[in-house]
Every structure is written in structure tokens, then in C-alpha cells.
Amino acid sequence: MGRPPLPVGTFGRIGFLRTPSGEIQARARFRDFDGRTRLVAKTGASRAAAERALKAELTVRRGPGGAGALTGGSRVSALVDAWLAADHGWSVGTERTYRSVVRTCVVPAFGELCLREVTPGRVSRALVSIAKRSGPGAAKTARACLSGMFALAITDGAVTANRFATPAPG
């Protein structure tokens, strides 16, 4: 009989190897949220540094709640894709407007951030910038899109709060 599987979202014993470059590699098995166990590895100059890097990576993989496909470490661009792929029952015009605002305003402002890096201050500054560049209507639509996206992220367990409660400027 094999060993029992790890609980979802947990990791096993951490092992260490010295790489040909002289760095230390820390590695552990992690049971991802799709139920598959994967080997996760990180390197560092010392055993302690490698272990810290590995634990940081495993924490990001878990995310707060983290039971869905998205985690706190997922990029906003991944959330955008998931949100746009969902069936919302929008009219053709609404979908066209939302896709345009997401492409021209939301992704440039937030796309490369991890979900956990999106703060009320970043949201507020970005909405002010969008309002100045594209008008208050675009900022209001961007906020509506972001609110819907982060509602999905909450449902997926990636974040615990919707950070888009700040009203759009203008």
C-alpha cells in the first residue's frame, strides 16, 4: 500500500539538494487544488534561504481559502480571463462595452498585479487616472467590471474582500 494522499492545499516533508551551481534547492510535494500532488522546488544561497523561498511559494499557492482555480497569487489578468469567460447574460452592447473597458483600462492598470496586491489605494489612484484619461464614464464602468471580477475571486476563494468598494471619481 502507498502512503495516503496529503490533504488538499498542504505540503509534505521538505528535502534539500545541492545544485551544480552550488545553490541549495528546497523541495516538497504539494497537493494542489485539482487534487494532484506536484513537486515544488525553490533555490537559495543557503538551506535556510531555500526553505524560506519554498515556504513563500507554497503560501502563495494556497492563497486565502484558495479552493478554486484562482488564488491570492493569481494575476489580475487571469481573473479577467475567468470573468470574461463566465456566462453573465449580458446584452451584446454591454459585453462589447465591458470588454473594451477591460482591455483599454483595467488590464493596463492592474493586469500584472497579483490579486492580493490590489489595495484600495491602488484602486482609487487607478480610477482617478482612468477618469482623467478616458472620462468619468470609463472609470465608472471599470469599477463595475472590477467589482464583478472580485466578486468572482471571492466566490473562488482567492480573496476575502471586494477591494472595489471605493466609488469611481467624477
Can you tell me about this structure?
The chain has 170 residues and is α+β, with helices and mostly antiparallel strands. The chain folds into two domains: 48 residues, no CATH class; 80 residues, Orthogonal Bundle (DNA polymerase, domain 1), CATH 1.10.150. Helices cover 47% and strands 12% of the residues. It contains five helices and three strands. Strands 1-2-3 form a three-stranded antiparallel beta sheet. Helix 2 packs antiparallel against helix 3 and helix 2 crosses helix 5. The longest helix has 20 residues. About 3% of the residues have low confidence.
Brief account:
It contains 5 helices and 3 strands; from the N terminus they run E-E-E-H-H-H-H-H.
Distance between the termini: 65 Å
- Percent in strands: 5-15%
CATH topology description of the largest domain: DNA polymerase, domain 1
Spatial order of the strands in the main sheet?
Answer: 1-2-3
* Tally of helical runs: 5
Listing every helix as H and every strand as E from the N terminus to the C terminus, the arrangement reads: EEEHHHHH
The total beta strand count reads 3
CATH class of the largest domain: Mainly Alpha
CATH architecture of the largest domain: Orthogonal Bundle
Helix content: 40-55%
Briefly note the structural class of the backbone: alpha+beta
Mean pLDDT across residues: 86
Q: Can you tell me the number of structural domains?
A: 2
How would a crystallographer describe the biggest sheet? 3 strands, antiparallel
Radius of gyration: 20 Å
Shape summary: elongated
Low-confidence segments: 63-67
